[in-house]
Design the sequence.
């Protein structure tokens, strides 16, 4: 096949129309999709535009309103390590931009990306994210000094070929004349100021920000409320190359004190591009291929940009990327777009289906889409609370193990396994931390660097690093949940067991025996409700530690290993704070003066997490619910995206259907879903997102909360009565994977209105 980057003879209009007729059925078939997978915006909604995400778990690119603008892009595990600072995701050169001007020469503001985005210039504007295909399409009629041009931009990050990303610009001018089209790779400047967050105490940080006039407030639209602290790391571009003859660009770079990366682009010009003038331009902020082309009124001109990206340890360098980009150009846009649709279609074979509430179905698809776009299968990389973006500096928290992993486990186990493999890969670093603090086993970081697994917490929050130790339990519990879901003893022996064992060793050395009370305490911890620091016996922490120790004993039995005798002794001796007469669980030891509860009910609310699966008598469950959850249920869901439905279901309340309906509606309307692409934010009042922790919480609510399902040694069991929000006809978990079987599980109402579960057998 001839490389479209080479110059070729002109094609007649008849031949071009015939070719388009052949391609049209392919395009139309790919565009036909369920409305629940489509989210879109018009020009009037742009003031509140919150970026969506295009990604494949290796590459993450934010959407931009024009579709042609330079978008922030990050690569998995590519971090900046400036001395004195925390590690940061290194912003790589932007690949999405294509700029257009409707004349042969003119001032800078002639360009599409430079002019104001308003109704005078952009008519009939519509942008749509097709989540079924992971494709963003933007259309509008662009007007500049009396010249109108119909514009369509289609962009995607490839799921079928993970190093590739593609964007295509189609122009249909309503005039005869010239166009200029520029294909840049955007070279970002280093963010200033760079702050030594690894050294500053809290007061020092506050004083330094105030002295610089920096506020931790968002700047609408859609900037993070902590953008002053969560800014990108730097990738220094060390080499660039461009070739006008072959229509290619390439570059090499290196994250500060981090890994090398590379990028290459191959451009495909329209079939009518004979005689086009092509040149390469270089500036401090861009490396570009610039094209000037004569156009005819009413004809459509397609320009495609095929981009390959890599980093050390994932792909080759600039030369290999250039080869891959040129190969992609030879395949052509339509073939790659077809492969993209097929790859995402395969992912959606496992799905959550809601009948009777179209908006709830759309929200469910959006939250699952963001998870799928942020976690790749068969890797040893986990994702941070906001995936491969700036939120929480891209570090890996307990969120991955507790909120995202369970949401993926039954529907997409290969992606769930990547989260576990990250903990195994970084086990040596966790062992080193345990030794540093005088403990045995492994002490996983609170903010783990996604590449190295080292602690990267700001010094101002150092106390969390030392004492918010519940993360260790979540790590082990996730490993055991995966074994229970697969019964893969070979995996457990080689991969899961080393992590589970080292966490058990940590807790056995972390607990303190109180001989006078004949019990074990865990002292000097920071609660999951973080306003309570340096306290004894946080209930959620203690129960999680007991679970992790019990699971270690069970895992040892499965693989024929000898567990430490201390593990069971400590697990069964840990103090679990209770109200007088054992009426309900306390959040902490009675001696603790509560400073705040967080999570709309404090640590007790988290006892109902599906993965923890803390089993208790029904009367105690209901008492816990009444005393620690119910009073704050509505407010917590409305303000915080880490919702509470899994715990409500476990409480087994009679009016669960009505409560579930209220929960679902609050998630949709409480302010944590941002327009137009239903990206979830951490709270209603900030702009941090897409917050995958909230997405995982919502999906768990559907997968485990409404169904009442739990993963136990005996199998996937209906542990609690199922429920449907009032107005929902059914809930279906399609193509669930459990212990080598494929299941479709449904919750339906019988003629009396009672919800029933089917499909487990």
Sequence:
């Amino acid at each position: 096949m001839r490389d479209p980057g080479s110059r070729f003879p002109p094609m007649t209009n008849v031949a071009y129309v015939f070719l388009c007729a052949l391609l049209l059925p392919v395009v139309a078939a790919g565009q036909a999709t369920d409305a629940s997978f489509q989210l879109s915006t018009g020009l009037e909604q742009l003031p509140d535009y919150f970026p969506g995400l295009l990604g494949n778990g290796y590459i993450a690119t934010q959407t931009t309103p024009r579709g042609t603008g330079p978008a922030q892009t990050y690569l998995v595990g590519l971090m900046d390590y400036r001395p004195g600072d925390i590690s940061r995701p290194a912003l790589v050169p932007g690949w999405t931009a294509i700029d257009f001007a409707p004349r042969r020469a003119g001032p800078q503001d002639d360009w599409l990306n430079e002019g104001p985005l308003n109704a005078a210039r952009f008519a009939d504007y519509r942008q749509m994210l097709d989540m079924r295909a992971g494709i963003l399409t933007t259309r509008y009629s662009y007007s500049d000094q009396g010249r109108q041009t119909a514009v369509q931009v289609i962009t995607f990050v490839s799921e079928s070929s993970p190093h590739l990303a593609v964007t295509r610009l189609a122009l249909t001018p309503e005039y005869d004349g010239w166009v200029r089209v520029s294909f840049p790779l955007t070279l970002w400047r280093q963010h200033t100021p760079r702050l030594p967050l690894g050294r500053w105490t809290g007061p020092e940080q506050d004083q330094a920000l105030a002295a610089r006039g920096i506020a931790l407030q968002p700047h609408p639209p859609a900037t993070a409320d902590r953008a002053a602290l969560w800014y990108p790391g730097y990738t220094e571009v060390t080499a660039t190359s461009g070739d006008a003859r072959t229509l290619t660009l390439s570059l090499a770079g290196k994250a500060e004190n981090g890994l090398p990366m590379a990028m290459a682009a191959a451009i495909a010009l329209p079939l009518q591009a004979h005689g086009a003038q092509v040149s390469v331009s270089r500036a401090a902020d861009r490396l570009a291929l610039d094209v000037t082309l004569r156009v005819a009124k009413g004809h459509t001109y397609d320009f495609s940009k095929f981009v390959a990206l890599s980093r050390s340890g994932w792909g080759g360098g600039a030369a290999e990327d250039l080869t891959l980009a040129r190969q992609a150009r030879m395949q052509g846009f339509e073939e790659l777009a077809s492969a993209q649709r097929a790859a995402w279609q395969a992912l959606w074979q496992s799905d959550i289906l809601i009948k009777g509430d179209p908006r709830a179905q759309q929200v469910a698809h959006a939250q699952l889409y963001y998870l799928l776009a942020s976690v790749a299968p068969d890797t040893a990389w986990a994702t941070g609370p906001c995936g491969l973006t700036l939120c929480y500096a891209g570090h890996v928290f307990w969120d991955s193990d507790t909120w995202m992993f369970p949401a993926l486990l039954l529907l997409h186990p290969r992606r769930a396994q990547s989260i576990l493999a990250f903990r195994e890969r970084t086990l040596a670093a966790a062992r080193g931390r345990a030794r540093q603090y005088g403990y045995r086993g492994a002490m996983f970081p609170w903010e783990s660097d996604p590449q190295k697994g080292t602690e990267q917490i700001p010094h101002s929050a150092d106390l969390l690093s030392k004492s918010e130790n519940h993360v260790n339990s979540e790590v082990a519990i996730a490993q055991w949940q995966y074994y229970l879901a697969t019964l893969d003893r070979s995996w457990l022996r080689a991969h899961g067991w080393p992590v589970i064992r080292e966490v058990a060793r940590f807790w056995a050395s972390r607990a303190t025996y109180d001989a006078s009370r004949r019990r074990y305490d865990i002292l000097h911890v920071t609660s999951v409700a973080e306003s309570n620091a340096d306290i004894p016996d946080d209930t959620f922490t203690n129960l999680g530690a007991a679970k992790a120790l019990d699971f270690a004993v069970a895992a040892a039995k499965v693989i024929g290993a000898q567990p430490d005798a201390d593990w069971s002794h400590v697990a069964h001796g840990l103090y679990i704070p209770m109200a007088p007469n054992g009426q309900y669980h306390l959040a902490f030891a009675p001696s603790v003066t509560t400073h705040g509860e967080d999570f709309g009910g404090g640590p007790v609310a988290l006892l109902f997490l599906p993965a923890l699966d803390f089993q208790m008598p029904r009367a105690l469950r209901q008492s816990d619910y009444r005393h620690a959850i119910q009073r704050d249920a509505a407010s917590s869901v409305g303000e915080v995206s880490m919702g509470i439905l899994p715990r409500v279901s476990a409480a087994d309340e009679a009016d669960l259907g009505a409560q579930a309906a209220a929960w679902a509606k609050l998630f949709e309307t409480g302010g944590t879903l941002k327009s137009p692409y239903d990206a979830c934010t951490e709270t209603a009042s900030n702009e941090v997102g897409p917050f995958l922790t909230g997405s995982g919480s919502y999906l768990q609510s559907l997968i485990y909360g409404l169904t009442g399902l739990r993963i136990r040694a005996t199998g996937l069991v209906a542990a609690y009565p199922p429920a449907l929000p009032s107005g929902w006809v059914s809930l279906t978990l399609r193509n669930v994977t459990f212990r080598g079987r494929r299941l479709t599980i449904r919750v339906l109402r019988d003629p009396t209105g009672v919800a029933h579960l089917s499909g487990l057998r």
Observations:
- The chain has a mean pLDDT of 90.
- The chain is about 30% helix and 25% strand.
- The longest strand covers residues 147-157.
